[in-house]
Every structure is written in structure tokens, then in C-alpha cells.
Amino acid sequence: MWGENNTIRLSLDRGDLWDERVTGGEGWWKEHTYQKAADLITQMKSDTVQNWWDKPYTGVTPTKLPAGRIEIRLPVAEVVKRFELNLSAAEGIASFNSKAVIKVMYSATQPIILLSIKGSIPDSVNLLSTMDVYRRKTAEQGGLSSGGSINNLGYPEAEKGHSEKAQWYIQQAANGLKYCVYLQSKQIDNETLLAISITSTNDAIDFLSLASQRCNTALKSGYTVIKRTHAQWWKNFWQQSGVSIPDTAVQKQYNLVQYFYGAASRSDAPPMPLQGVWTADNGTLPPWKGDYHNDLNTQMTYIAYQEAGRFDEGASYLNYLWNRREVFKHFAKDFYGTEGLACPGVMSYSGQPLGGWGQYSMSPTMSAWSAHLFYLHWLYTADRKFLKEKAYPWCSGVGECMLGLLKSDEKGILKLPLSSSPEIFDNSAKAWLKPNSNYDLMCLKMLFLSLKEMAMACNKGTDVKKWSGAVFALGDFHTKTDGTLLLDAVTELPYSHRHLSNIIGLYPFNLITAEGGEKDAKIINASLKKWDSLGTSQWCGYTFSWMSNLRARVGDGEAAVKNLDIFVKAFILRNGFHVNGDQTKSGYSDMTYRPFTLEGNFLASQAVQEMLLQSWSPTPGEINTGIIRLFPATPKKWANASFSDLRAEGGFRVSATRINTKITWFCIIAGKTGVVRIKDTFNGQEPKWSLIGVQKKGKIYEVNLVKGQKLEAVF
To answer: In angstroms, rounded to a whole number, what is the distance separating the alpha carbons of residues 621 and 382?
Structure first.
């Protein structure tokens, strides 16, 4: 909801509105295969490969589609003074200079939007199609930028209709898709009530009647009745977990991003692509097609739900990947020539490859990174059913694809035919690195270690040996003699860059840790010194929030909060969305543009959680070895902080309070029967335990708990 003076606009979107028409010919990836590309690159013919894989992305489609807008004009004397998002009830509010108030909710329990206007009767309420918006913007501006013009899709004019109390438009899209935006009004004393529904041929043959029925039913119930179940849903959502930190701006961003999960990611609905369900309402198509970028964006958009306990919301992306496994099996066979499955590095809603910079859009290891989310979901839920029925089958499918591509070199080291490190050297020939790049190596090691651990939990002894062997055969990471992580065996990172791909083993993969001994410490210190020396001139907003997580993971709370503060100060808009460029033009980055993508927001939210609680295993690939660390990277200025019901690996619920930099209380509720391990981060304080039997081994406290049992400690 947005606007000015007496005009309020409600931008509309729906996650499955996509034009899936292929640019470059149907099934172009079947002809221009991975092996053919590897052969050409060996022959120094990378330009041909670039043309094969980059060109399909230059077309208008496939693309996410916007859905138009509602425009409300109140009498000229009315002037909007304030917009507010009530997070607790997920309700938008616009207040005017008079007593007029507009409230809107996108129901959490019904496929309906309700808008209430009190204190003023609108002069007009109009429904604008995407083409209407396009024509208006071109008339105002004389041209459009961003992701390309709606007009380029070649759609026929929307069919518009109206009755006494309703108006609607039906847009014919492509491949048989039609969608309808339906608006119906009702006057109740001094309240104007609007109901809006977006339906399509994905819902019903007679989707117009369905939209009408939904609006009729909602108007009969009324705003108050619909809000009752809506508000209860959100109450339950917010009760899952919470954090409290003494930084208003960061706290506000954290809460908003948690809201994004509830607002835009449901287990039975499309997952969030680059802009979620907030496609820009400006007459254009979304930047980067509003697609699913699997070289960072989707993985980092879904990196913050595990610790927050938003498992239903996080399941949206996992269910999406699971439901397309047959598509991904065909892609592995047709493009990579292997068994198993692989999801494209850049893909549409249906799961088809879109192409783009081929070093990343067609890279097999993007699937390994996506598999990491299945692994994390299992670790944090301790859900054995999910492990056996979804996580292990999907991830092992990726593992089989990777094994099919890896070949032993003369030293017995497994190597991919092609290698790269997102998105270093862009799409130039130089971006083809010497296999395996550290990025690819880290993705593969994480995949095989997680598969080993999951196979152990599933009692698959033969598989354990297979995945263990693959880990060993990959060899070690590429470093300089001082420990600095390289891009590949010979190439050093030459300049500031936005993507932390060559140090991804520190975070989120946790392959090189602050507790990993002298060798790991050497790598961490040298690599971060290198990154610091290169500066931030080529960083995007998400780089700062990613680096905040990474610094927290290695125990540097001060560096973590410094990067997070810069992100919140310079890389978010007034409405809270992350943008790529420095909006303050303060020199944090040379990039100052403002296309928005969501992953930076979610990384910022996770950074807060990383500073408050960590539970990773110091021995990846081994089962049940996670250790709970309370306030492991909390900065000094967060002297007073607390959290409730954050999740730790193993399915544990953890709550804790810190006052004047000292932990005063914590509580752990077991998500499964077994040993809980807690690192001594208590600065010399001795905990008073609520249960007997807690033993200390070195720096780790251990105790056996049964599922649901509570352990508390006070100081």
C-alpha cells in the first residue's frame, strides 16, 4: 500500500503468475550440453559457450508477472499523513489529515484481500491492469527501465467487466494461462469495504465465478470477522520465537524480515523468488525476471527460518524443489548426462533453466548448495520422517549427479570438467577457473559430508562409505602459504567483490571453523585479512549482511555488528526492502543503484540470530555432534539482550537472557531424546542447574534429556 495526497494504491501480486515461454528454443539445454561446453572451453572456444548459455536469458520470457493495482481516490481535501504496517496483525494502515483511515489485510487463512475505508467516502475506486499501469507510466516518464516493458510480452488487451458493485479484468497470458483480478465493494454505514481476489486457470476453469464467490463470501463476513482468524494466525506465528536487542533499527529490520516469511512463504504456496510477491508496480517486468537464482539468492532467502523455528514457511522452498524432482532428474540426464537430479542455477517457477551467465546459471554445484537447505531443515527439526522421505532422497539424487560428473585426475583427485566461483570475473572467459574452484570444492564437500551424516542417521552403511570416500577424494582447499583461500589452485581474488564464494566454507557451510585448530585459524585470519584489504567498493547490500553472518560464525561480534549496521543504514529502503546499492552514497560501495532483492534482508535477520545463538558441529559429517553456544558473538553494545525459543541443531528450543554483558539465565527444551552439549561461554560464572547429572568435559557441559524435558540454569 502506497500513495500520496488523496490517492492510495494497492499493488497486487501472486506467486504463480509466470510466463514460461522459452527464449532460445524449447529444450535448448539438451542440445548445448555441459560436456559439449567443456570440450569447447578446452579448445579455447568459450565465446560459443557464452552464446549458447547467455543468449536465452536476454529474451523477455520466461518471467514473473505482476498483477496490476487498485487505486483509491478520496476527496481532494484528504491528505495522507502516515503509512503503518502493524506487524503483530499483518495489517496495513493509512491515516489522513482528517479522521479518515484505510486499513488493509491480505488474509492469512483465506485467498482474499480486504480493505476498509472509514471517515471518508472515496470519490473513485479503480482497478488497473498491468497494461494500464504501463501506459500511464510511459505517458508520465516517456520511457521505462528496470526489467523490461509489459508491452513486450505481446499479450492482448485485458478483458474488462463490471457490475453495480464489482469490476474485474481478465488477462490472457501465455501457454493457456489466464488470470483474473476481481474487485467488489460494499457500503456499511460510514465504512466502504473492498474485497479483492486474484484467480487463474490454475484454480478453476471458471476462475471468474470463483473470484466473485470469494469476494461475495468475504463481504458477507465483514472485515472484523475475517480479521479474527487472520490475527489468530499471526499471533501463533509470532509466538514461535523472538529476540530482543538494544538497537532499534536492527530490531525493526529483524522483525520485518520475520514478517516477510509469514507474508510471502507458505508450505503449500510458491516460494519467494528474487522479489517475492512484491514485484514492482511500475509498468515493467521485474529485474532479473523475478526468477529463482540459485547461486546465492534463494539459498540466502531461506537461511534464516531454521533458527527462528519458521519451519512451515521454510518448507515452501523445500516442497517446491521436492515437487519438481522429476523435472530435475530430466535436467540432470539431458544436460549433464548423469543419473540423479540437478536444479538449474537460474530457473523459472516450473523449474526450467533460464540461462544467463553460464558459469553460474548452468553450474552443477548450485544444486549442492540447494541441498544444504534440506540438510539444515533436518538438523533443526530432528524430523526423521522428513530425513528419510525427502531430505536424503533429494540430496542423494544431487550426490549421484555430482559423482557422475567428477572424474579422477592423475593424482586421484576428483575434478569437475568445468569450474567457476560466483560471480567473479562476471561472464568472461577468465571466469572459467581451474577445476575445482574453492567454491565448487566447498559445495561438494558440504554435500558429501551432509550425505554421510544423513546416511548414518538412516542406517545406510554402504552409502556412508560411498560419501566418505567422495569427501576424501576431493582433496584439500586451495590456499596460499599464509593460509589465504584462493579462487582455485592458482588464482587469487584480485579485487573487491560482492560474492563471498571463495570463502563460503566459513559460512554457511562451516567447513573451516574457529574451533578447528591452528590450521583453520590460519585460514580464517589470512582470508579475512585479504578481504579487508580489498575493501568494499564492489560490495552489494547482501555482501554486508552475509559478511555479518560470517564474522559472527567465526566469533567476531564487533565486526559482525559493524557490517550489519552498515547494511541497515545504507542498503534498505524506507519500506525495509534490501537494495543492491548504497542509498546514502556514503562510500560504502561504488554501487548506488536500487533494484531490490530479498536475500540481503534475510541474511540480516540471520546475522542477529548468529550473534545470539549458534549450535553447529565442530566435526561436520558426524552425527549428533552439535554444540549450543549462547551469545557467542554478541557485541559489547548489545550488553542487554535476550531471545526466546530460538532453535538449535537437534531440534532444541533455546531461550536466554544477558544483562550487562553477562548471561543470567537460559533454558533448553529437548526436541528429541539424547545428549545436549553446551559450550561454556559464561566468562567464569558457574551455572546453577535445574537438573542433576550435568557433567563438564573440557569446555563443554553435557547432559542426557528426553524429548520435551527442560533444562534451566541461572547465574
So the answer is: 16
- Break the chain down into helix, strand, coil percent, rounded to 5: 40, 20, 40
User: How far apart are alpha carbons 34 and 159 in whole angstroms?
Assistant: 44
Provide CB contacts within 8 A for 630, sequence distance 6+.
612, 613, 654, 656, 663, 666, 678, 679, 681
Q: How confident is the model at residue 148 (pLDDT cuts 50, 70, 90)?
A: low
User: For 315-327, how does the pLDDT look when each residue is reduced to its tens digit (9 = 90+)?
Assistant: 999 999 999 999 9
**Could you check whether the bond before residue 62 is cis, i.e. omega within 30 degrees of 0?**
yes
Strand partners, 704: 675
- Asked if omega into 508 is within 30° of 0 (cis), the reply is yes
**Residue 147, pLDDT score:** 52
Distance of CA 15 to the CA centre of its chain: 15
- What are the two backbone dihedrals, phi and then psi, of residue 105, each rounded to the nearest 5 degrees? -140, 140
**665, three cell numbers:** 539465565
Mean pLDDT of 274-278: 94
Per-residue DSSP letter, 417: S
Q: Is the pLDDT of residue 238 over 60?
A: yes
Three-class DSSP category at 16: coil
Are the C-beta atoms of residues 275 and 521 closer than 8 Å to each other?
A: no
Who's near 87: CB < 8 A, 6+ residues apart?
A: 238, 255, 256, 259
**Average pLDDT over the chain, rounded to an integer:** 96
**How much is the pLDDT for 145?**
46
pLDDT of residue 141: 72
pLDDT tens-digit series, residues 672-702: 999 999 999 999 999 999 999 999 999 999 9
Host H or E run for residue 559: helix 557-570
User: Rounded mean pLDDT of 297-305?
Assistant: 98
- Would strands 7-11 and 69-73 be described as parallel, antiparallel, or unpaired? antiparallel
Instruction: Say which residues have a Cβ less than 8 Å from residue 595's Cβ, sequence separation at least 6.
Output: 146, 287, 288, 579, 580
Nearest by Cα to 335 from 360, 362, 366? 362
Within 10 angstroms of residue 424's Cβ, the number of other Cβ atoms is 24
Helix (H, G, I), strand (E, B) or coil at 599: helix
What whole-number distance in Å separates Cα of residue 565 and Cα of residue 242?
Answer: 20
Q: Which three cell numbers stand for residue 624?
A: 549428533
